[in-house]
Amino acid sequence: MKVTKPTLSQVDAALSQIRRRRSIADLEDWIPVLDSMALFAVWKPRLRELTRAFMDRVSRMILDITVAKPERLDAQDSRQHLAALSD
């Protein structure tokens, strides 16, 4: 499999799609995320630990979103919307 350099917007769109579907089953959504993590891991060796921590955080966030009840997600979206308005 060839690793391509994904743009930040591609990674954001992929993570948004994973969140919207509340599923991690579609590999197409993962490709930009995993490609960016792979590139970070080999780009500079000193970033390897930061990459591992990033992968851990993203995995936990996706798992948390996947098992969350819709009511909690709606409440979280409302809080984020209010925070964005206050900035």
Write the layout of secondary structure elements.
Elements: H1 8-21, H2 27-43, H3 48-67, H4 70-86
Could you please describe the fold and organization of this structure?
The chain is an all-alpha fold and 87 residues long. It is built from four helices and no strands. α1 packs across α2. The longest helix is centred in the middle third of the chain and has 20 residues, at 48-67. The model has no long low-confidence stretch (mean pLDDT 77).
Largest sheet: none
Percent of residues in β-strands: under 5%
Number of strands: 0
Secondary-structure element sequence?
HHHH
Overall average pLDDT: 77
The residue ranges in which pLDDT falls below 50 over 5 or more consecutive positions are: none
The helix/strand class is mainly alpha
**Structure annotation, total helices:** 4
What's the gyration radius in Å? 15 Å
Summarize the structure.
With 87 residues, this protein is mostly helical. It has four helices and no strands.
For the structure shown, list the relevant keywords.
mainly alpha, 4 helices
